Every structure is written in C-alpha cells, then in structure tokens.
Amino acid sequence: MALIISPKNIKTAEEILSKGGLVAFPTETVYGLGGNAYSDTVVAKIFECKNRSEFNPISICYPNLKSASSDIEITKTAELIAKKFLPGSVTLVLKRKKNCKISPLCSAGLDTIGIRVPANPVALQLLSELDFPLAAPSANTSGKLSHTTAESVAEDIGNNSNNNIAILDGGKCNVGIESTIIDCSSEKWIIIRRQGAVATEEIAQKCGISAENIIVEEKPKTFTVSKKILLNTQITTENDALLAFGEPVATKYKYALNLSKSGNLEEAAVNFFTMLQKLENSDVKKICVMPIPNIGLGKAINSRLKALVK
What we know:
The chain has helices spanning about 10-20, 40-50, 75-85, 120-130, 150-155, 200-205, 265-280, 295-310, and strands at about 5, 20-25, 30-35, 60, 90-95, 110-115, 135, 165-170, 180-185, 190-195, 215, 230, 240-245, 255-260, 285-290. It is α/β, with parallel strands linked by helices.
C-alpha cells in the first residue's frame, strides 16, 4: 500500500523526494507523480511506475517561471502567458538550455521541455522547499483516467506491490482536467499542442493576441534520426554503429555504445536517448540495434525504436 501523507507532514514528502523516491502530489488539474527531474534513474522509475509503453515527454513542475530559467530559454511570449496564467493550468513548451540539467528522458530526446507552475498551495509549498524541479506526469497507470483525489491514486498505482510511492493528500483537485499545452518556444507564434483547462479564446483575450497568431496543432513532436535503423540484430559492418544491450558477440563495427552491459532495462532506459543521439551525430549511415526484451521499460524502448524505422 502507498504511504498517504498529510500536508501538515510535507517535510516527509520532501525527504522521500530528496532520497530519490516518488511522491504523487495534487495540482489544480489532476494529481501528478513527482520525482527529481535532474535524475535519469528517478525519471526511469516514473515511467516504470506508470507502466508506460512509450517514452512520451513529461512536464516539469517549478515553483515559478523564474526558477526554470537555469534550465530553459524563456521567451517574451512565455513571459506574457506566465504573467496572465501562472500559477495555473497551462504547460509552456520551451527550449532547453545547453547546460540544462533536466533528464533527456523527460523530453523524450527533444530539445524542448514542458514547464508547469501549478495553482495549488500544497504543490507550490512542496516545490519551493526542494532544490530541484519535479518531473510530474499524471499519477495514473498509463491508459487509465487521470486522478483527482489521493484515494483514487492509491487505488490505482498505489495498490501495485511493485510501486513504492507516497501520496501527498491535498484533497480533491478543483479543475479536474489536464492543462492546456502551449508551445511558446518561438517569439512569433503560439501553438496549442493540447487543448485543456484553459481555452484558446481565453488565451487570446487575456494576452491581447490576435487569433491569427494562435495555431491549434494537436500533434506531439517526436524524436527522430536521419540514420537507417536496423532492429534485433548485431550483424554489422565496419561502416555501421552498434547500439548494444548485454554482451555482444564478436563483430565488426565502426562505433558501439552499450545501453546496459548487465542487461538492466532501467539502465538501458536511462542511456537510451543520450546514446542514440551520439550515434546519430556520428558519420555512420546505419545503426544496428541488438534485441531488447519486450517487458517493462523494454516495451517503451522498443516502441520508440520501431517509430524510428523508415
């Protein structure tokens, strides 16, 4: 059973998070499953806890937009929207800085990150006491409805004996639907990536923006590579790269990186986007990928790999 924590004992939640644990916490929209966004291992735990079969971007919660400035490029568009709507039910998509400490798993390999400042006093108190932001997708098993109470979180992911999480009980969320995702990485356009709690018309009205400058484009960006990807093989040539898992047999290749020599899927998930990007930036034409077990986090890795096959 999950540990349910009263807001009066919020220090307990802070201690769990600081030690690399996961804590579900309330926002004004739905409960989020929080963990240290700077830790690759912790973010991998979040994917595993949610039983996600794909690596989708995860929003990052900060106590305010200024505190995110060390990790992301804040545009004038973002400042305008933040002035009108933060704290609140919007997620701002912005570009990573070169020295960004956010785990690449959070952005699923992309150069942008979704930022949230939740309008919930319990969440804001928790975030203000931590020295790291929280990676925080919705606190539910992948494919199930999002939760608006601590009890329903406990009944879902908290009941899974494999999940070791705590739940900060902040009562019922007062909005109940997910945030509106706004791509404001450009100074020129605002792009709605997902319509949610804040309507497009409200954004235009409060920000004094022409409707012509707001594009509704509800399709997620995905990580891509230009190299040819060959799956479930380690038969390579001197001009190929090998993305290995476990111990590869003797073979010729130009470059090789190993997701996990010990065959650990959590370690493989942590290394996945970083290693794939390194091979993408090399001078090979083909990346050969060894078989990866299609269980647990292996499902998410395989799903992303299949999407890259041309």
